[in-house]
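Worked example
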Amino acid sequence: PRSSHASLNPPICLRFVLVATFITLSIALFTLPSPFPPPSPPSSAPLKVLVDTDIGTDIDDTWAIAVLLSLHASKTIEIVAFLTSTFDTLGRANVLARFLTDSKAPTIPIVVGKSTPVSEAYAQAGEQAGLDYGANFDLTTYPSVILEADWFTYTTKLIDETPDLLFLELAPPDNFAELGKSIPVVGMSGSIARGYDGISEPSVEFNVVGFEGGSTEYSCDLYKEALDLTLTPLDTCGDFIIEGSQYQQLVEQRASNPVVSAVLDHYDSWAAHDPYNGVYGPLHPGTTSTVLFDVVAVALMAQKEKVLGGDEWMRLEDMTVKIEEEGWTVQVEEGQEGKCGGRV
């Protein structure tokens, strides 16, 4: 149910997750003998998913989309569209179109979402390291692209005409807030007790605040307007990587599996363009992934919606959280909620 509060001071109750294990699932999906498996008849209609992504900033979106393509091919979910989010949304669409093409994926509509003016500070911050991968891709060759001028009309109609649609939020929620729709959301957002790099204190998390705090108010709208909000914060996804023998299984599939090849090609390109001006430190695309925040959000969606049966890799936990002005997500007692959010 939606919060009855209209101001930026409604109650927040977020369902966060504790990850038990997801690495087995991700490896199974990435190391298929062919790019997509022959679909088995689903026991029920596939879950319809609208994916909001800022692909091209961090590389975890690319890995998450690869897992989503495997689920789409198995007919356990149906990706109704991809929506590109924040800053150079057209550049992100180029990256996504090349990735889907190289992966030999079926045609899925790409919606060029609401763009943000690229300031000099943003341009120099290493936030666009992944865009070069799609820079020379001719977007007119992709069969289904909805340009920014039509994004709102197209997406609003899609939401209104698609029963039981789930919004998968893998980006700062600027697009979601602009749409103003009350629909179920699963996503990656927040930091309660643990922060980046597994530190034992919270961080101001990027999907909450965006670049230089530009998305904090949009996150308030997400937490307030989502009909049902289920999130993985940094506490549960902030140290999930693939490495060692499991990563080598992926590398060995590179020549034979177009999905794996496309993931690693984009990873190589992203790593070569000094993402975040080196904040990650040395990157090793040949031996280990970076932190795959958004892959955990996909796993959370799969478990919550039971798209792979009744398997459970995570424990869901309800809590009440407030978003503070600076973007901190803080657990509080019910009835002492902060300045923005909504009920889950």
